[in-house]
Amino acid sequence: MLYVCATRAASAVFPFGERVSMARRKKIYEGKAKILYEGPEPGTLVQYFKDDATAYNAEKRDVIEGKGVLNNRLSEFFMTGLNGIGVPTHFLRRLNMREQLVRACEIIPLEVVVRNIAAGSMSKRLGIEEGTPLPRPIVEYYFKDDKLGDPMVTEEHIAAFGWASQQDMDDMVALALRVNDYMSGLMYGVGIRLVDFKIEVGRIYDGDYQRLIVADEISPDSCRLWDIETGQKLDKDVFRQDLGNLTDAYTEVARRLGVMPKQATHLGKPKLIN
Using CA atoms, how far apart are residues 152 and 68, in angstroms rounded to an integer? Predict the structure, then answer.
């Protein structure tokens, strides 16, 4: 059922006290963590961040109050920063505490993962101890298909099945490494190590001309983030591995980056800067 469907325009209150005008609108797509709605202008979409948390291909599920608000604000922060240094993204502007206006694009059916430190599936797959620094950032591709468990694929698979051209792959690697440079430096400055992250890439067209942009989101849902001093995990591994309160972890990231006031103490329902 469409989450915002109503018989007439209405108003709803979400967690954290935000009040959002609700009206009937067309749902384009619903994923595990977000919903996409038809945008108010041609070529735009409204991206709504849910509180749902999933892990292990949705075998583990929960609803974490406030997670969607934090991811909306953090993704806004990261995407705005990338736009500012010339890395193109789909982000246009934040609409409210849970929604942002984004550019519609054709999503390439791949997750592009950049790894700086061995963790997660890489450690299991290659027998490398978690926490081992890698000799250089390693870029991997995963085919986006939940039913198949998002299998890892090579450039040969991508070219053979027509998911992307060689030029697309070169551009995706260049985008991913620029995101890595930006995010690594940003996080290091607030005492957080960027272990790895994933991005999705979209195509936009201007006549016959195509270019690639960073799409979807960049948030603690899509990154591994460890405290440099203690090794404390500040990402979705907190939920995957039952290491504590996920909202508290995301709140700590937001606080360090200045998305939340440093004096905030109630981590369950953080007050975010407008």
Answer: 28
Rounded distance, CA 188 to CA 88, Å?
23
Per-residue pLDDT of 138-167, as tens digits, reads 999 999 998 999 999 999 999 999 999 999
The ranges assigned to domains in the chain are 10-103, 106-257
Q: List, for residues 181-196, the tens digit of each pLDDT value.
A: 999 999 999 999 999 9
The CATH topology of domain 10-103 is Phosphorylase Kinase; domain 1 (3.30.200)
Give the right CATH number for 106-257 from 3.30.420.150, 3.30.470.20, 3.40.50.970, 1.20.1250.20: 3.30.470.20
Report yes or no: 206 and 109 within 8 Å, Cβ to Cβ. no
Q: Describe the strand order of the beta sheet including 99-103 as a list of residue ranges.
A: 27-30, 34-38, 44-49, 99-103, 91-94
The answer to whether the beta carbons of residues 234 and 227 sit under 8 Å apart is yes
User: What's phi and psi for 7, nearest 5 deg?
Assistant: -75, -20
Distance between CA atoms of 87 and 212, rounded to whole angstroms? 10
